[in-house]
Write a structure and sequence with these properties.
Strand order of the largest sheet: 4-9-11-10-6-7-5-8
Shape: elongated
Oligomer: single chain
Strand content: 15-25%
Radius of gyration: 28 Å
Number of strands: 11
Length: 275
């Protein structure tokens, strides 16, 4: 075999690329970063200088969370729209993971500071007044994606010169808590007699006897608000309203919103209608 003096040993290549020898062997076995030369007698791997660029891409893709099979496909897609789309999708997924991690940290902090019943949540039984509202119903990926519906609703209201007269909110249509494809109606109170056209609707809701958990602070506390409502249901022998009407659905009322106040100043009423 002709000598190729520019080739590097696996140790030298490892030092330059900041990829361990173990990982280089792993990538070789999966066809992701195959040495330029393997000695048939000794099995020694040697790498060419141009593979330093490949190794940098492999390391970066690994560090942002791609698995070995995805890395191999992405290396072949460099310089194409598929490469860009894959990175954009991974960025969105990492943003969602970071949001979920912040929620977990926030919950741990609250449990350490205040126990199982956060003092930033107060619970009352009250009659929620009758409501006339303009609503937009839609399905979103998860509860945290509710903002997508607001992004659609507000321009529609502006186009129709509809002015809300109270705090906005959201109605949950699903009979159970769902992990994806959440069916929601967001709403804004309006004057009686207001008319709209599709995709908007006008909803009329009667006065309702409700348990209302008022949450002061981030929306991540809403799950604890439901826990407190459930505990009161058991303690007082109450029953949630169970008919199949809009008036029976769990709903939130946003007394302040993130576009106007910081997260720790948000005030949200979590409402569960009762029989």
């Amino acid at each position: 075999m002709a000598e190729t003096p520019n080739l590097m040993s696996i140790g030298r290549f490892s030092a330059l690329t900041r990829l361990s020898v173990r990982m280089l062997r792993h990538y070789d076995s999966h066809g992701v970063l195959v040495p330029a030369d393997i000695d048939p007698w000794t099995g020694y791997r040697r790498y060419a200088p141009h593979q330093l660029i490949d190794a940098a891409d492999v390391r970066n893709l690994r560090d942002v969370g791609f698995g070995v099979s995805a890395i191999g496909a992405l290396l072949d897609a460099r310089g194409t729209p598929a490469w860009t789309r894959a990175l954009q999708m991974q960025r969105a997924e990492l943003h969602e993971e970071a949001r979920a991690a912040r929620e977990r940290v926030s919950l741990i902090t609250r449990l350490l500071e205040t126990g199982d019943h956060p003092m930033s949540i107060t619970l009352t039984r009250t009659t929620v007044p009758a409501l006339t509202a303009v609503a937009l119903r839609g399905t979103v990926a998860s509860y945290s994606h509710e903002g997508e519906l607001w992004g659609r609703l507000m321009p529609l209201l502006a186009e129709r010169s509809i002015a809300p007269i109270g705090a906005c909110g959201v109605i949950e249509h699903d009979d159970q808590y769902v992990e994806h494809d959440v069916d929601l109606s967001i709403f804004l109170p309006v004057a009686p007699g207001t008319t709209v056209d599709a995709p908007l609707t006008v909803i009329e809701l009667p006065p309702r006897d409700c348990l209302v958990a008022r949450v002061t602070g981030p929306y991540e506390q809403i799950a604890q608000a439901h826990d407190m409502i459930n505990a009161r249901l058991v303690e007082d022998g109450l029953s949630p309203r169970g008919d199949d009407t809009l008036a029976s659905r769990v709903f939130n009322v946003y007394l302040t919103t993130p576009d106007r106040v910081p997260g720790d100043a948000l005030v949200t009423d979590v409402c569960r209608p009762l029989n």
